[in-house]
Write a structure and sequence with these properties.
Blueprint (H helix, E strand, L loop, with lengths): L1 H6 L9 E4 L5 H12 L5 E4 L8 H11 L9 E3 L2 E2 L2
Parallel strand pairs: 1-2, 2-3
Antiparallel strand pairs: 3-4
Length: 83
Amino acid sequence: MGEDRKRRGENTRSALFCHIAGRTFAELRKKCAEELIGLDFDGYGIGGLSIGEPKEVMNEVLMSSVPLVPQDKPAISWRGLAG
């Protein structure tokens, strides 16, 4: 399949994503994001959620984490596209 994509001129490079963590602690997530952004990954995963916290808290943390990701990079979460 990869060879077919190369012949058609499609991108065959894999993207390297990192994982922004910090549970429900905004400062830990911010520090994690700052450090990882300095490494210039292809995209960012918003992780450490949906592991027992109330749904409202999970949504709040997710929505406050998305702005930490550079706008020109994709952000995903276990719940789907985050931004």
